[in-house]
Every structure is written in structure tokens, then in C-alpha cells.
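Sequence and fold:
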Amino acid sequence: MKARVALVLVVLVTAASMSTMFARANHQNSKDGNDVKGMLDIRKVQTFGRNQNPGWRIITRSRMTAKAMRGIGFFMVYLDTFGDSGFDYYALVSSNGAKLQGTLWRDPANKRDRRVGKLPVWRSDKRSVSLGVRLSKMNTGGKDRVDYRWFVKTLFTGNNCRRVCIDRAPNNDALIESNGKPSPAPTDTEEPGFTESPEETPAPDNTESPEASPSPSPTP
């Protein structure tokens, strides 16, 4: 009898800890229909990881190899970290012919895209690609910004996609994730004339986006 009670307690404690873990992660996934030609038609996007180190697994309907993707196939994860109408960064997965590689880019509204750094990319099968992003590499909108928006896009040019086949998940919207910051506590009414100084944006390096890399301006 005591053994059964102990087993029940272990199960309950484990379930509670798992429930807390998933609630803290607050991940959202996106399913997509069979709606685009080419081998990069998105079937599903799964999110994983901790709030400050999120990851995305993009699953396609067709098999793909690094050799076949070179110069004609790209995965992109767009991120709105400032909380405005635009998307401020994008993670780009491309192929050098031998393997897939990931980079993070800053996407200013009126300037050329700038490379921020490399990103880890890995694969569990030929129909998916996974990548991770560290939010610490980005300006996340100051202490009052507690979440960010994202969507995924694929670009493919081939025999059935002469004008570039573009797939998006979700199709017409963006999903919201927590960035791990605590929600700001309510404050008293500000004194007249008080203005907070703007957050200083981290200076990216001076590497400009290569002409061949796709950098479309998304419309959320």
C-alpha cells in the first residue's frame, strides 16, 4: 500500500513539473496545407527550447538534400522583437552544397540588411530542418517588451517554380512567444514632462547582406 502511494506521489509530482515546464515555454506550432509547388512546401512548424534560446523545426512535404538546395532553396524565420508593425530580424538557412548553414540578419526598415552572426542548424531527417536562436543577440525592445512575433517563410526556385515558389506559415498572421522577461509591474502616473530615454540598439557588424541572399520585406 505504501509503495502504491509513493508511486502515485511520484507521478503527480512529475506531471506537475512537466505542466509547469510547458506553461513556462508557452510554445506555439503552425500547420500548413499542401498549397505550394516545389520541395519546400511547409507541412508543419514546431517550436521548442527555452524562452531566451528558442528553436524552430520546419517540416516539409518533400525530401530535400543540401546538394539540391544550393542556391535555389532557403528557409527564413522572421522575428518582430520591437513590437511595431515590422519584422526586425530574420534567421536564414541556406546550403553551400555540402551542408545547411544558418545566419541571423538585422532587417532595418530603410537600410541594407546586416549580418549579426551564425546560427546552429541540424536535421533529424530529409524532410525537416531545425535551427536555434539566442535572443541575447538581438535587441528585444527594452525591459517592457515581454514577447515577440514570428513566422516562417520558404523560398524555392526550380523546374516547377520559375518565378520563385514562396510558402509561409502561418499564412496570413504571426505567432507570439514569450521572451522570458517578467511582466512589468504597474507604476504610478508619470510626472508631467518626464520622458524615458530610448534603449540603445546593439551595433551589428559591418557585413552587408550578399546580393544573392533573399531578403524580402514581409507583410504580416
Summary: The radius of gyration is 20 Å. The longest helix spans residues 2-25. The chain is about 15% helix and 35% strand.
